[in-house]
Amino acid sequence: MQVGLHELLGHGCGKLLQETSEGVYNFDIESPPISPLTKKPITSWYTPGQTWGSVFGSLAASYEECRAECVAMALCCDLGILAIFGFEGVEASDVLYSAYLSMARAGIAALEFWDPTSRKWGQAHMQARFSILQTFLSAGNDFASLDYTKEDLSDLTIKIDKSKIVSHGRPAVESYLQKLAIYKATADLAAGTKLYNDITHVNEWWGTKIRDEVLRQKTPRKVFVQANTILSKGENVVLKEYPATAEGMIQSYADRTYLSDSVWETGPNI
Ligand SMILES: [Zn+2]
């Protein structure tokens, strides 16, 4: 659901205000739209030849991922949308809670992709998730918190108050999303850069204490290993499964040669 909202309504929405060719605008230049941020008519837009990528440059990729993630976080609170994806009642509230909790967790795990030497982010989506975690943490009224009792943060726990997602989490995300969307729509590079650099700035506490613990608790990347079926004694079909490790994956492939030598030309068809 989260990926669906991210791709379709996240990347898929939003208009760039543009002078499409000399003197031709895709909005009313005589009465420009009112920015919901300043409550005044907009004063910037894309000029002929400018694109989102050419104006926002190296910021564009992560910023846009963030905008799409925020759209997903805002819309997954909507009961009608949850229902479209087949979730209703208690299940819908569990899915919503999972979406917020897993985003918060991703925001912490993201620190693996922040390089302390260059002090830069190496992965667009993870930088975006870090900023959404910061948005949760500043949503107020203990909506989101990081709990720990040990000095080395080895018992670090993320808490999201399920009962405050709609009242606190969603409005915080929406307010952040509104800025991201308006600065993008109006080609406001200066405001967009300040917003995004400030919120994804990694200070000493995040960059050393929390990041060290993230790396220490890191588990190997999960792998999907294909099970095999074997016909035993000519009649019983036996399902053979493997551990989700590199060894398990190799064993799964190796076992498929019993089919025939040609399996490697035609591909396994089990
Ligand atoms: Zn995306």
Can you walk through the features of this model?
By secondary structure, the chain is mainly α. The protein folds into two domains: about 220 residues, no CATH class; about 50 residues, no CATH class. It contains eleven helices and eight strands. Strands 1-2 form a two-stranded antiparallel sheet. It has a two-stranded antiparallel ribbon with strand order 3-4. A hairpin with a 4-residue loop joins strand 3 and strand 4. Helix 3 crosses helix 6. The protein is globular and about 80 Å long. The two termini are about 30 Å apart. The relative contact order is 0.11. The mean pLDDT is about 95. The site of zinc ion has 4 residues, from helix 1 and helix 3.
